[in-house]
Amino acid sequence: MPTSPKLSASLEQGGAPLSPATAFADVTASDSTLRRFLHGLPGVDAVGLEARAAALGTRSIKTTAKAYAIDLAISMVDLTTLEGADTPGKVRALGAKAVHPDPTDRTTPTTAAVCVYPDMVAVAKEAVAGSGVKVASVATAFPAGRAALPVKLADVRDAVAAGADEIDMVIDRGAFLAGDYLKVYDEITAVKEACGTSARLKVIFETGELSTYDNIRRASWLGMMAGADFIKTSTGKVAVNATPANTLLMLEAVRDFRAQTGTQVGVKPAGGIRTTKDAIKFLVLVNETAGEDWLDNHWFRFGASSLLNDLLMQRQKLATGRYSGPDYVTVD
Length: 332
Description:
Radius of gyration: 20 Å
Oligomer: single chain
């Protein structure tokens, strides 16, 4: 794994951990140094990666461990509505569900956040007030990211001003695939600055459009070096979204990044995770790859909507011994 010379010197001198921007200042000084670093990352063994992800997915979790996993997964859900037909009423209903996912059982954990478009942030903020549920907002011309940087930054600032606790930005995949890594890096750092101190930044790669596992590894390191608080697989708006293999690869990246820098970064798989069985497979990936430190909603999230309903039905089944069916949970 290549290391920044500045970071290596700091580690050798036993100094305090450097911020990512400082630690990798020499790497990000030019297009050529950044490209050299990213292309110097170890290549991904696709067969090995997919085999490990598949093997971890066969772990059997039952009884009390399953009950714990279900509650943990509920607490990690970013309950999401990102449709052109979103209304204030729909967002208020989503907020109410985030605060009390199962109104018949107040022991059910709250979700981690509700995720909405910037113009709905104020409505969502009011709906979850006092609950601890965060309000996340997609920004930077989500989902395509096709806009000038000033427009993207205005999008972020509007969301933060309305009260967003978290910003989910999309990278410029066209620039990344063209090898213009410094442009992508500069955009992430600019968005991070626009978030200020009040909002955490999730950086969405749209892994289904990056084509290769090597690109996903490079994007992961690029996002973390630029100051991402979370790296996120996808928007949920393309054909291929979160998979066990691409999430495993990103978990390896955050693990290795913390080992090198001392900075912990979260991971958010999004899109296509619909069942309790799927969610538990991802939690096993987290535990076995990054470790227990990431088994907390401050460091791991599910970008999902339909997932929550299945988690609630499985939770009810464990409590009552009966499968209640979808009519017994609210429709998103």
